[in-house]
Amino acid sequence: IDIIFNTTEGKRAIEESLTIRSAAIAGRVAYFTTLAGARAAVMAKNRIYDIMVHRLKDLHEELAA
Q1: What DSSP character marks residue 28?
Q2: Rounded Cα gap, residues 54 and 15, in angstroms
């Protein structure tokens, strides 16, 4: 398992999610509890190869110009 999306509703579901959350932490698995978080994670994964890395020094030089 690489990622867990666990949304809950109701007191019992929230209590049961503790076990899932603990296992995710122990297994170093990404864990999200909201639909917004799940959507953001999926969007980020889909764009992971579109990321460009810039040196901070270069960015400051551009701002100063």
Answers
A1: T
A2: 43
The model's pLDDT over 44-65, given as tens digits with 9 standing for 90+, comes to 888 777 777 888 998 888 888 7
Closest CA to 29 of 63, 10, 6: 6
Report the distance separating Cα 2 and Cα 53, nearest Å.
Answer: 25
* Cβ atoms 17, 8 nearer than 8 A: yes
β 3-5/30-32 pair status: parallel
Question: In whole angstroms, how far apart are CA 25 and each of 19, 42, 49?
Answer: 10, 19, 26
Residue type, 38: A
Which one-letter amino acid corresponds to residue 7?
A: T
Instruction: Give me the residue label for tokens 């999306």.
Output: 5
